Amino acid sequence: MKKIGMIGLDTSHVTIFAELLSNQDHEHYIGGGEVIAGWPGGSKDFAMSHSRVDEYTNALRDQYGATIFETPEEVAEVSDAIFIHAVDGATHLELFKQVVSYGKPVFIDKPLACSVHDAKAIIELAEEREVLIGSASSLRYWDELVIAIADKEMGEIESMEAWGPLSFQEGMPWYFWYGVHSVEMLVAGLGPGCEEMSLHMNDKSEILNMRWADGRSGIYHGIKEGHGGFGAVIHRSEGVQVLDCAKSSRPYYVSLVERLMDTLVQGKEMVAYDEMLETVKILEWGCRMKDEKNSRLTV
């Protein structure tokens, strides 16, 4: 049984993950790990963090029996694997620096970071210290998406569109809050290599049109008004796959935790580092265009 330590107890992911790992009566119980420790953290300048940290800290201690420590280092010391859940992605680099010396596998909840600079620094430090890391939105491991991407019966992927609800949070760069989910689906299907992007906005949606270096294309459709569902269309050389998350066979969080326990916690690669960096790059480019009111960006 692997001992899991959680850092940054200010998101519902804390209790969702703990429930799946501890409740053997749960329909989607995932064995092999136990959350035994946590450090509250919390970002005082980010309302979605400091307003929730007490709630999830109390739940982790009282409902799931975890010991609450005063520092991230104490959590790392007693854990076999570390989950950095802190909802403020801008804190992830500093939190990782505090625990990397313990040599434990580290999952960094989405987003990996809120800038390419910080994302590169995390990856470089992990490689330098030979510490395995992983970061992903749960939508990357949505069962139907994983199956569709792997199914090449209709040829190779030529283009892809992913959509989902789009909302913003003060203190978090625009698309890093909710755009990360759909962008991660695109990167899962198309891989790294986006080199050109255009932005189209109105009151109901925001759309990023992207071109990859090999000529393939991707579209992110952030829906501000309307249905709140996630989905994707994969265009292949000989056919089309249409995916609706509302028809999922099981909750996508289950797929993420299962992947975590099967790979990263066991010392195996969870996500290719260049794909983790690609997701942050696309999000940063989108934010830059929105801030600068620039409709096109080319690298």
UniProtKB/TrEMBL annotation:
Keyword check for Oxidoreductase = yes
Pfam families cross-referenced by the UniProt entry: GFO_IDH_MocA
Q: Which domain of life is it from?
A: Bacteria
| Annotated InterPro entries | Gfo/Idh/MocA-like_OxRdtase_N, Gfo/Idh/MocA_oxidoreduct, NAD(P)-bd_dom_sf
Answer yes or no on keyword Translocase.
no
> Which keywords annotate this record?
Oxidoreductase
Q: Which residues form the Gfo/Idh/MocA-like oxidoreductase N-terminal domain?
A: 57-133
Q: Which GO molecular function entries does the Swiss-Prot or TrEMBL record give?
A: nucleotide binding; oxidoreductase activity
State the similarity comment.
Answer: Belongs to the Gfo/Idh/MocA family.
This protein is called Oxidoreductase family, NAD-binding Rossmann fold
